[in-house]
Write a structure and sequence with these properties.
The chain is mainly beta and 133 residues long. It is built from 1 helix and 7 strands. It has one domain: Hcp1-like (Pnp Oxidase, Chain A, Roll), CATH 2.30.110. The protein has a 7-stranded antiparallel sheet with strand order 2-1-5-6-7-4-3. Strand 3 and strand 4 form a beta hairpin. The protein is globular, with a radius of gyration of 16 Å.
């Protein structure tokens, strides 16, 4: 399979460098919210030096009962074999804006699950080549 990455725009605040991390599983959908619904992205990834900052943001949001701690933009990239012919490799790019870290939990085995909530989503899928015979 291909690369699965999540890029946080301006990781430590306005004008700071972007940070890219790998993830192993994800789900993208919506969840009910006051006044409608919001976009929800859950990812599973290996814990690393960035985990404590993500956990802190989730805890601050829960403690303050707000979703004000997060990022202006997150870009999720995944590469997978298309479902229609099982041979075409496709790169999917999803950009989420106005993103908050809603939940963080350790799963054990050095893995964690992080739930992000966003106000806006844009997606594109790009064919990048064939796999197999």
């Amino acid at each position: 399979m291909g690369a699965n990455t999540l890029t946080f725009k301006e990781w430590a605040g306005s004008g700071t460098p972007d940070v890219k991390v790998d993830w192993s599983a994800s789900s993208l959908g919506t969840r009910p919210a006051v006044g409608g619904s919001v976009i929800e992205l859950k990812i599973t990834r290996k814990s690393d030096t960035r985990s404590s900052r993500l956990k802190m943001m989730a805890e601050l949001n829960k403690r303050n009962r707000t979703l004000s701690w997060g990022f202006t933009e997150i870009t999720q990239v995944s590469e997978h074999v298309s479902m229609d012919n099982h041979r075409l490799m496709v790169r999917s790019i999803t950009v989420l804006t106005s993103v908050a870290v809603a939940e963080f939990r350790y799963l054990g085995g050095n893995e964690e699950e992080i739930t992000f909530i966003a106000n806006k989503k844009s997606e594109i899928a790009i064919p990048i080549g064939f796999v197999g015979p």
